[in-house]
Amino acid sequence: PAVSRATFMIREREILGVAGVAGNGQQELCETLVGLRKVESGSIRVNNEELTNSIPKTFIDKGIHYIPADRKGTGLVPNMNVSENSILKRYWSRAVSKKGFIDWKEVFSFAKGLVSRYNVSTPSMGTPVRNLSGGNLQKLMLGRELSDSPIAILAVHPTWGLDVAATKFVREQLLAACEAGCAVLLVSEDLDELLAMSDRLAVMCKGEIMGILDSPAETPVEAIGLMMAGTPAEEALASAPRGGEKS
User: Which distant-in-sequence residues (6+ apart) come within 8 Å of 25 by Cβ?
Assistant: First the structure.
């Protein structure tokens, strides 16, 4: 299996970062936690409710939202417009659906508010999202996932490929969601980003969590590097140079 040993808990108002070299199970872990992959052994619980192998809609309805790394392939539908993409995970809700039919007036109103609130630059609500820049795609997806006040957000490489302004905006929105009570699982290959934003840091290698650091900003980067290479946390921390020591 892509993920063979991963035991952890995320609390409300906490950002749990996930570090690791690309291809070590981070993506598969997140897909499992939102119902896109089956669990062969183990369990997923949300507020003590068993959700193991539930369908994606169940996770969405329980407030578990997902910002995938692949914006156009997984997060958005390129040929659909801004309004349509804004309700991909809420088209069945009473807010935009009446007696089984989508109320496009309500959809337009919702999308317009989301675009304004999250600073999405688009010619119109009817513009296909394939025509938007990477930063605006990310802000649209971010706004859609945060608009329903989720209890947890899984964000995979949320600032990858963005300019400085868009990166700052995305980070601020995730921090604000956390402060409002949301739990955030942040997967990134940018160690500086993880150290700056994470309350705790899990380090993965070959589908396993090598350890979870309670004070990541105070942990020697050499220790984190050793964990990313497959060294268990206790051994990595003992081997890494202390402050003032030379490696």
Answer: 2, 3, 4, 6, 204, 206, 207, 208
Predicted confidence (pLDDT) per residue in 168-188, tens digit: 999 999 999 999 999 999 999
Angstrom distance (rounded) from CA 198 to CA 201: 6
- Rounded to two decimals, what is the model's pTM? 0.91
Domains of the chain, earliest start first: 15-78+151-239 (3.40.50.300)
Measured in residues, the chain has a length of 247
pLDDT in tens, 45-69: 999 999 999 999 999 999 999 999 9
Q: Which helix (H) or strand (E) holds 45?
A: strand 45-46
Structure tokens at 73: 């392939």
Sequence-ordered list of residues with C-beta below 8 angstroms from that of 165, at least 6 positions apart, any chain:
135
**Spatial distance between the Cα atoms of 28 and 187, rounded to a whole number of angstroms:** 11
